[in-house]
């Protein structure tokens, strides 16, 4: 039986979307799945180095790895009127060249931030350390991601929503593409199609059994938040729109790539549909 390792972030939405497999609700013939959790920037760096066959990434990273990885259509996270938050201590005013902590160079929020605040002095750190760095005065502001957008300290306030920056740059009417999964192109095509189908089923089953799965995650201390916050968070980032990419989500990802290319973050302009796993291959092969 082949062992397949899936690398994802330790935040609640990634865990929720994977654990239908971990708990044995979904399986794949002749395949044993295992998982490893790392912060998103480490996963981005691992994807650049080709460490894993299946790995969670920030959407903003994808054009840098498009020759080595295909984007999966499932386990995606978008913002719809919400997203990462730029926070600071209450009552403070940020200077033009304020010092800010971001969760990683290749994250979507970092790219959008750098476009919106070209004079800011950026330092990168693990996303779990950003809130405390602002409270301790090590930085003037920080961009919060994952569950911390719901649980940050009462001494902090929002300077600006990343959603608003996205709306200004994209022209509005599109969800904010944050993260998804990618699969190594060297995997045989039939096997890659099976992997994507299995992961899609896992996310779909997780959504259909959200209450039961959430309870199991909480009982096993697999998430860092309480039950009400978990419920709220999953509706933001592991919702019904996470099961399979929609046409509007394709448009949003392509707009993100267009913005990045326009501002010099990418050497080439890519269109996400051109890099997907060609699922029609299986039908054609056996027709």
Automatic annotation (TrEMBL):
Top enzyme category: lyase
Superkingdom of origin: Bacteria
EC number assigned by the record: 4.1.99.29
Active-site feature positions: 146 (proton acceptor)
One GO BP: menaquinone biosynthetic process
One matching Pfam family: VitK2_biosynth
GO molecular function ontology, one term from the record: carbon-carbon lyase activity
Record's keyword terms, sorted: Ligase, Lyase, Menaquinone biosynthesis
SUPFAM superfamilies: Periplasmic binding protein-like II (SSF53850)
TM region positions: none
Pathway: Quinol/quinone metabolism; menaquinone biosynthesis
Catalytically driven reaction(s): cyclic dehypoxanthinylfutalosinate = 1,4-dihydroxy-6-naphthoate + dihydroxyacetone
The keyword Signal appears for this protein: no
Job description of the protein: Catalyzes the conversion of cyclic dehypoxanthine futalosine (cyclic DHFL) into 1,4-dihydroxy-6-naphthoate, a step in the biosynthesis of menaquinone (MK, vitamin K2).
Record family assignment: Belongs to the MqnA/MqnD family. MqnD subfamily.
Database matches in PANTHER family: 1,4-DIHYDROXY-6-NAPHTOATE SYNTHASE
Database matches in HAMAP family: MqnD (MF_00996)
Protein name (Swiss-Prot/TrEMBL): 1,4-dihydroxy-6-naphtoate synthase
């Amino acid at each position: 039986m082949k062992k397949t390792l899936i690398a994802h972030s330790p935040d609640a939405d990634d865990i929720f979307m994977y654990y239908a497999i971990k708990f044995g609700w979904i399986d794949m013939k002749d395949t044993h799945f295992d998982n490893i959790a790392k912060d998103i920037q480490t996963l981005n760096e691992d994807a650049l180095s080709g460490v894993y066959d299946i790995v969670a990434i920030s959407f903003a990273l994808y054009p840098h790895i498009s020759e080595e990885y295909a984007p999966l259509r499932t386990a995606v996270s978008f913002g719809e009127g919400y997203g990462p938050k730029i926070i600071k201590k209450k009552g403070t005013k940020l200077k033009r060249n304020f010092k800010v902590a971001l969760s990683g160079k290749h994250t979507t929020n970092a790219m959008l931030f750098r476009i919106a605040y070209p004079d800011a002095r950026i330092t990168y750190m693990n996303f779990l350390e950003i809130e405390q760095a602002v409270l301790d005065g090590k930085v003037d502001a920080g961009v919060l991601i994952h569950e911390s957008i719901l649980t940050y300290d009462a001494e902090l306030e929002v300077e600006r929503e990343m959603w608003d920056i996205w709306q200004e740059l994209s022209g509005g009417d599109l969800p904010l593409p944050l993260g998804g999964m990618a699969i190594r192109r060297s995997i045989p095509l039939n096997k890659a199609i099976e992997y994507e189908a299995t992961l899609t089923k896992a996310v779909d089953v997780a959504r259909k059994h959200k209450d039961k799965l959430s309870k199991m995650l909480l009982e096993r201390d697999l998430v860092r938040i309480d039950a009400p916050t978990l419920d709220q968070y999953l509706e933001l980032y592991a919702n019904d729109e996470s099961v399979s990419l929609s046409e509007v989500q394709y448009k949003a990802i392509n707009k993100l790539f267009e913005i990045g290319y326009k501002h010099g973050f990418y050497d080439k302009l890519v269109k996400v549909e051109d890099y997907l796993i060609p699922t029609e291959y299986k039908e054609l092969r056996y027709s």
